[in-house]
Amino acid sequence: MATPPRKRKPRKTGAPAPVARPRARPAATKTAARPAVSRPADSSTRATRVLDWLLRKLPARHREKARDYLVLTRMDRPIGALLLLWPTWWALWLAAGDFPPWKPLIIFTLGVFAMRAAGCAINDYADRKLDPQVARTAGRPIAAGRVTPREALVVFAVLLAVAFVLVLFTNALTIKLAFAGAVLAAIYPFTKRWTYLPQVVLGAAFGWSIPMAFAAVTHTVPPLGWLLFLGNILWSVIYDTEYAMVDRDDDLKVGVKSTAILFGDADLPILGMLMGTLLLALLFVGQRAGLGWPYWLALLAVVGLFGYQLWLIRKRGRDACLAAFRHNNWLGLTLWVGIVLALAVK
Which residues contact 79 (CB under 8 A, 6 or more apart)? Predict the structure, then answer.
């Protein structure tokens, strides 16, 4: 016979209802997942892959820090070093009147990369409070907290020392000019706070290798060297204005000054005038150096390249402006090839 179910005793009035005890959370949910390391929005995918390949054998605990130092010095974006390298090579070839001596060629080529890396480190130090507020730069090592400001200053000092040691293998005039170049590289990042023309200071800093190259090869800086230097300032203003157009909206919000903000809606016609002035300066360079038809053919190609850049940025899109900036690498290369060939057939 089935046993009848037991009757439960009625609960006393006022007795608290049993409360279910919460289950312990799994250990995995107690700590939030570590966010993926952010990278600057304008990093070169190809260069980043090369850095990953070079660092692959380092211990894991050192690999990430080494990568952060390389990103701090823009080794993931070699375009800036190339824009500094081409004018240096223009000057070396023009100063020598042919293939330059190996010693200054090696010294200045290595010095370009050292000084550009040093300039990037001090730039990020100066912009450490501004970069987190700008979409393109928020992933930079200092802005993202992966490198401390003090570490950036140490990197800057070490790279500056390396560049100075290289200059010691040249002559007295070149060494004296190097001090002025170091000052320009150090003050440029801070000029965007008090002038709308930081691109002019950048052009002087980037182009200071031109009089130094002439001094290293010829022990003097002739008018041709200063003319080329002024032309490089114009070129720097052109491509860095295109670069600044990418960040113009963010820069207005955080109070950073640039030629892109200064030019405003007149940016495209002003860039066109600057391009025309640069072409005129390069024409005078060719005449003074007595360069032949390969140079003039290269100068004609430069006209087409500038026209393409203006067409790219006609709608002022961020990606288009960044593409136009990067396109200047081909312009620098074209002009260097023209100089080399013109001197070869001279």
Answer: 44, 325, 326, 329
d(CA 151, CA 132): 18
Asked if residue 295 belongs to a domain, the reply is yes
CA distance 276 to 253: 32
Under 8 Å between Cβ of 310 and 262 = no
Any domain includes 145: yes
What pTM did the predictor assign?
0.83
Q: For the segment 138-179, what is each residue's pLDDT rounded down to a tens digit? A: 888 898 888 999 999 999 999 999 999 999 999 999 999 999
**Sequence-ordered list of residues with C-beta below 8 angstroms from that of 170, at least 6 positions apart, any chain:** 104, 107, 212, 215, 216
Instruction: Answer with the residue of higher pLDDT: 51 or 195.
Output: 195
Residue 318 lies in a domain: yes
User: What is the tally of structural domains in the chain?
Assistant: 1
Q: What is the DSSP letter of 33?
A: P
Supply angle C-alpha 78, 79, 82, rounded to 5: 90
Report how far residue 81's alpha carbon sits from residue 114's, in angstroms, rounded to the nearest whole number.
Answer: 9
Q: What is the CATH number of the domain that holds 324?
A: 1.10.357.140
The answer to whether residues 185 and 250 touch, using CB atoms and an 8 Å cutoff, is: no
pLDDT category of residue 20 using cuts at 50, 70 and 90: very low
Tens of pLDDT, residue by residue over 197-214, are 999 999 999 999 999 999
Expressed as residue numbers, the domain containing 169 is: 78-344
Q: In degrees rounded to 5, what are phi and psi of residue 79?
A: -55, -40
DSSP string, 250-269: HHHHHT---HHHHHGGGHHH
Q: What is the distance between the terminal CA atoms of the chain, rounded to a whole angstrom? A: 121
Identify whether 213 is part of a domain.
yes
According to the model, what pLDDT value does residue 44 have? Answer: 65
